[in-house]
Input
Amino acid sequence: MQSEILNLDDIKILVDSFYGKVREDDLLSPIFNRVIEDRWPEHLKRMYTFWQTVLLGEHTYFGSPFPPHAHLAITKEHFDQWLDLFFISIDENFVGEKAEEAKWRASKMAEIFQHKIARYQYAIQK
Output
């Protein structure tokens, strides 16, 4: 049953659904599993606080989301797949304004991260 994203429990459903898909995805799982290793519970908790802060305005996430991604050898293909899985996870579970905002914010984040990673990779090749 689809509902609106209203609280931390909803954020947990979104994050768990999404990362469940990522962990099974042929393109993304090797990257995530290599970086996260056995720290999935820690990563999920961090993602709960990130999306809780972004979507609900409850400031529980502290840090900068980009630096852990800067050194990854990921391309537009990876970001497109990440977004596809994120959108599927939202559409399976949620409707409403916050669901649409989550999609918009994820799209913008993917765009910015992709640009920054490309710039970083270009700089280290020089």
